User: What shape does this take?
Amino acid sequence: MEIQVARRLQHTEEYYFSKKLREIDEMNKAGAQVINLGIGSPDLPPHPEVIKVLCEQAELSNTHGYQSYKGAPALRQAIAEWYERYYSVTLNPNTEILPLIGSKEGIVHICMTYLEEGDEVLIPNPGYPAYMSAVKVSGATPVPYTLSPENHWLVDFEALEAQDLSRVKMMWLNYPHMPTGALANKEFFEKAIAFGRKHNILICHDNPYSFILNEHPESILSVEGAKEVAIELNSLSKSSNMAGWRVGMLAASEQRINEILRFKSNMDSGMFLPLQLAAAKALSLDKSWYSQLNKEYAARREKVYAIMDILQCDYDTNQVGLFVWARIPNNYKDAYQLSDKVLYEAKVFITPGGIFGSAGEQFIRISLCANKETLDKALERIKANL
Assistant: This one.
């Protein structure tokens, strides 16, 4: 007896990292001790006060039941205050904020709420693979738009205007951009909002990296009238060292929140209350938290630059975020070839840019989520074996 997977999954492959980590696990079982510089999972802990709140709340007898699908009022209020303080964006905590079990689930919720067969969606190339996957699972058709270093990895709206946009219902944006680290300013976001309004396209901005090595966090919702046409996702995974806690947020107009809730409320039964209250604490931390975090990441980045130099890769020192993105030398066919060479010969894993789309095939990405000693060790291995 053979049971086929649903048609929606037949073109959705297992995540590259999932497969590669299995291979690395097998190498480690054989004694390789691979240094993984691939994945952006922060290795530093959250602030001690955040952990304290989690523990205190978890010890109470009345914090273990089902929670509201809309999230705890304390968390929504903390999100609103955080947006006001750092982005100068005013959000109604009761109607314009939806806490998420990680912002990655928000990508799927948005796609499943608005998309169906026949719809087209603009997605960045290179870009986070989850956008492509979520669009495909929804039954809609992804339409990649190419980002280039010549345009500082920013969207070329003039080029998009020349395309047939009649079936495009949604566009995914992500700045600071992953994987390239490119920054966008308010003028860019104004163009994005104008583009969405002109063509009746829902602009979805994924914004988890705005505090990492970036002095001026920006939100697309700071643009006047943005809530009419835009949704923003944000996350505590990177900025608060809480990746495994799975705490994210969606900010949008009341109408959008209610529409997305129609889908999300069928997917889960709320988030553990102590997690939500600890997240509220994380959002209340002052700027010194981000300054301390970025001091560490800046020191690590210098070491990653040294690794890139040994590999003879070119990189832009203006990039921000949790990774360093660099063009590979011309003597490699693509970044997969270089990545595998470094993995098998130096036992160091770095991410090939091709997993983010065809426009990334000549680039590699190294994560800053490894301490300075580990980065030094990786550098020495690469020097000795390549």
Remarks:
- The longest helix spans residues 287-310.
